[in-house]
Amino acid sequence: MASLKGACIIGQSGGPTSVINASAYGAIKTALESEDITAVYGALNGIKGVLNDNLIDMSKEDPEELELLKFTPSSALGSCRYKLKDPDDDDTDYKRILEIFQKYNVRYFFYNGGNDSMDTCNKISKFMLQNGYECRVMGIPKTIDNDLDGTDHCPGYASAAKYIATSMMEIYRDARVYDTGMITVVEIMGRNAGWLTAAAALAGYKGNGADLIYLPEVDFDMNSFISKVQEIYDRNGKCIVAVSEGIHDKDGKYIAEYATTAAQAKDSFGHAQMGGLAAYLAGVLQQQTGAKVRGIELSLLQRCAAHCASQTDIDESFSSGKAAVENALAGVTDKMVGFERSVDKNGNYVCNIKLFDLTVVANTEKKVPLSWLNKTQDGLNDLYIDYALPLIQGETKMVKEDGLPRFANLKKVRV
Amino acid sequence: MASLKGACIIGQSGGPTSVINASAYGAIKTALESEDITAVYGALNGIKGVLNDNLIDMSKEDPEELELLKFTPSSALGSCRYKLKDPDDDDTDYKRILEIFQKYNVRYFFYNGGNDSMDTCNKISKFMLQNGYECRVMGIPKTIDNDLDGTDHCPGYASAAKYIATSMMEIYRDARVYDTGMITVVEIMGRNAGWLTAAAALAGYKGNGADLIYLPEVDFDMNSFISKVQEIYDRNGKCIVAVSEGIHDKDGKYIAEYATTAAQAKDSFGHAQMGGLAAYLAGVLQQQTGAKVRGIELSLLQRCAAHCASQTDIDESFSSGKAAVENALAGVTDKMVGFERSVDKNGNYVCNIKLFDLTVVANTEKKVPLSWLNKTQDGLNDLYIDYALPLIQGETKMVKEDGLPRFANLKKVRV
Fold it and tell me: Cα–Cα distance between B342 and B351 in angstroms, integer?
């Protein structure tokens, strides 16, 4: 493959994670060190930064500040939830992207996001190809939801899972200090896939977990739920429940929708907004059991708690960004960098880079396999523990200043 | 002072903290090493454990497991919210306590709790004195609320403050990833004193903080609040607000009370139950500003997040428990172990143990000085930062196993 000289653009999209910047840093650092890549630009707020010619010059940043990206949560370049139209219907955006690519001689495009972002990569790549503009496009995955198809797991998941499991263990201890009864409902993110809620099972593996875990992979039955909680509460005086925000009844209606009479807003991808489920279920249980019930929503803390990130996740995220650039330089295009799991001679977890077709990844959601649930479908079995445990190993080496996180502060010098 | 030989009882009371067990460990370890103390008992669920003759033998615990108490959140011995009656009205409980003390020759009583617990210590001590039973009684403070009078600060506060400041910094980053507008309301614990909410100012000191901070020390005016948020939102497109759960209007009515039409339950100390304030204020702001608004309740995570504890707090908590036993052995009684702040030759923070009369501490609440607030009373000034910053220094050396906390598991062998 002939070398391709030109600039690159790196963008971030979708909901942030604790380690999305570690991925971006892997790509930025590798691109800055490359001879073929003549300039490294960051697109502010994802693809909108390209459309609006809102680019920053990453070479103008202090290298030490850039390195802090490894420990800085949320999208340092800014994110967006902008969905590109189908180019057959309206190719305005694509023409504009091509115009910007030509203006800066952009030959490499790296997009760091979830399944919607892989879809964006895919469409841009096809359009460039159809228009005879050579540009290598690589997707760098991120999502706390862990729902990207193909890859063994997604950068961002493990840190959120580690935070959830740690917090569940701490909540477990807190819920047991009094000799009076207490039911606790913890609401965890995950619209259609229960990977994050499943992480509550890691706390259970350490003996400090939820009694019941409800994933959106299984239809939620309120009567069954109430009677199970009642039975555990009657037996132990305590009951801790972990529920996914996306649990739904057998007709597919989100339980969270019962929580508010207000109409649910929908975002630009048509997703219903969630929230208030823990408080709702706590109210139901209080009424039905008469017990003291507490509802806790982990809210966005679970996606930004970089102070509790998995070092394994940070390292793998960095590797995925680095591999995206290295592979593009070697001539690869139209791929997402993913992971394949293997074991070394000693049986220890090894994470290998594997490339996936963007078409495979885009717009599909990987669910928790039903075979990983217990028989009563209110908990996880060892298959999940074996899967998740290696991912959450290692403590972040986050830089602290005055006892608090020292996050990266980018200068963001406009091109 | 003649040495006093006999057993000791250690109990924990009130809401737990991340480091209450570090205090207990300081007391237990020192007592176990003492020659005068013939037996070290833990009272299960505080004073209820004494009343119910529900004691455990701390010498039967594995020393390595006991040491893990330094990093184990929530009350390992169990807690209670049992309020002793005034002995002049009903001395039944006190007679029972004396009976138990006599049964086990208990000559030392260490109670680890907040202001209600100091009140309990005080009453027990007086009763024993009146009945001619020699027993040295020491209070070991704990409260995330930091509202105990006399002492410079309370064990437990700094770890909660560190968690709140860290989480606020992370939320700040998360709230800024999109180029669309966003208002975020974060609800923080603290019924009558704003110390915990003030910790949001530490995030601001690091440039990642709340725009507005509302403490219960100042009457809350809804119209002023809405217009301030609107003004900041119009200017920046973002606004982050930290509110204490205990904010109230000029008539003293809690804003949280407006949040639910349901009657507010009261605990045995007559405190109104709180919650739902963030969601309520988010709703008000959404309606008034039309912006996207998110309400986040830090909930009990802020009092149990041992994974983000301040090592300074852990060390000081341990010291306070140790000092309680050492002072009692030296003949001191009827005191609470507190802290006095000084500086060393280099101007660095030093924390010295100071003893306070239980009568001074019991049933008073120390508020945030109004002189530490900014002129508009919606933020803190440097006096607070100078006060709080030394307390949150140092990262916990929490023991991890499988990438998750390894908490203490006590055998709890009954006496």
Answer: 6
In one-letter notation, the amino acid at residue B267 is: D
CATH number for the domain spanning B57: value is 3.40.50.450
Residue B231 falls inside a structural domain? yes
Is residue B237 a contact partner of residue B231, using CB atoms and an 8 Å limit? no
- Model confidence over A178-192: pLDDT tens digits? 999 999 999 999 989
Please tell me whether residues B16 and B151 are part of one structural domain. yes
Query: Does one domain contain both B55 and B121?
Result: yes
Q: Would A374 be classed as within a structural domain?
A: no
Can you give the residue range of the structural domain that contains B285?
A: 160-305
Sheet containing strand B212-214, strands side by side: B212-214, B238-244, B182-188, B293-297
Q: What is the ipTM of this complex?
A: 0.95
Chain B: nearest CA to A216, how far in angstroms? 23
How many angstroms separate the CA atoms of B46 and B9, rounded?
Answer: 10
B145 is catalytic: yes
- CA triple A355-A358-A364, angle to 5 deg: 110
The yes-or-no verdict on residue B332 having pLDDT over 70 is yes
Question: What DSSP designation does B197 have?
Answer: H
What token pair was written down for A187?
């609401």
Please count the structural domains in chain B: 2
* Same domain assignment for residues A143 and A183: no
**Residue B42 belongs to a domain:** yes
Which of B275, B305, B335 is at the close of a domain?
Answer: B305
Q: Where are any strands of DSSP class E within B13-149?
A: 37-43, 55-57, 106-113, 136-141
Are A143 and A163 in a shared domain? no
Render pLDDT for B251-295 as a digit per residue (tens, 0 to 9): 999 998 876 543 233 334 444 433 488 988 988 898 889 999 999
- Residue in B91, B145, B211, B313 annotated catalytic: B145
Q: Which one-letter DSSP state was computed for residue A395? A: B
Q: Which residues of B358-386 are buried (b: 16+ CB within 10 A; e: fewer)?
A: bebbbeeebbbeeebbeeeebbbeeebbe
Q: Are residues B190 and B110 in the same domain?
A: no
**What's the pTM?**
0.95
B75/A276 touch (CB, cutoff 8 Å), yes or no: no
Which residues does A146 contact at the CB level (< 8 Å), separation at least 6?
Answer: A153, A154, A156, A157, A193, A195, A196, A366
Structure tokens at A277: 């489920």
**Of B225, B223, B219, which is closest to residue B250 (Cα–Cα)?**
B219
CB contact under 8 A, B404 and A165: yes
Nearest CB neighbour to A403, from listed B78, B297, B310: B310
- CA atoms of A225 and B351, how far apart (whole Å): 51
| Final residue belonging to a domain, choices A260, A283, A306 | A306
CATH assignment at residue B249 = 3.40.50.460
Are A186 and A276 contained in the same domain? yes
